[in-house]
């Protein structure tokens, strides 16, 4: 049996995100895009913590952000880019963050309610939680394990129920769409970040490549 953390330290990030790791221009464009995609201009200046930050594109364009990831490989990739990442979740200051966000992580963890309880401890009493999970397709697949290793498949009802159980009060549910981050990179180069932002959004809508975005406060 492979332990949860070991799986993501066995080459997962290199296989899943080769363009982000190997192309600094793409990494910077993706970081800029994600900051704009999920946070308002005012929110971007707040103290933001990412639970499960991967290789760091979610926090790289946020000036007061930090993160943590279960994968030592991911944390090492973040430090190579001088990003603020914690070695252990126990080292992260509690009740200290304006926003805690968790993007494409909750579907991977074995005990989601425990992860949410940890996030709740990190938030200020008036802070906001942002949960982002993929909009899964439902069709018959091969029985062999896949690279992503999603252990849960979410809908808004299940997410909201789980958030209530974990001590949160969900506020908004929203579908967001984006696609073709790397393929559209020349648009960023020649036409700028606004054109890149809108092109990735249109690509997502056309291909129905979506995410479930839930915002919640501490109950």
Number of strands: 7
At the fourth level of CATH, the homologous superfamily is Vaccinia Virus protein VP39
Indicate the radius of gyration in whole angstroms: 17 Å
Strand share of the residues? 15-25%
Number of helices: 9
Give the overall average pLDDT.
93
Output the CATH class name: Alpha Beta
Please name the CATH architecture.
3-Layer(aba) Sandwich
Please outline what is shown here.
The chain is built from nine helices and seven strands, in the order H-H-H-H-E-E-H-E-E-H-E-H-E-H-H-E. By secondary structure, it is an alpha/beta fold.
Give a structural overview.
This protein has 219 residues and is an alpha/beta fold. The protein has one domain: 3-Layer(aba) Sandwich (Rossmann fold). The protein has a 7-stranded mixed sheet with strand order 3-2-1-4-5-7-6. Helix 5 links the parallel strand 2 and strand 3. Helix 8 packs antiparallel against helix 9. The longest helix has 15 residues. The protein is globular and about 45 Å long. It starts with a helix and ends with a strand. The mean pLDDT is 93.
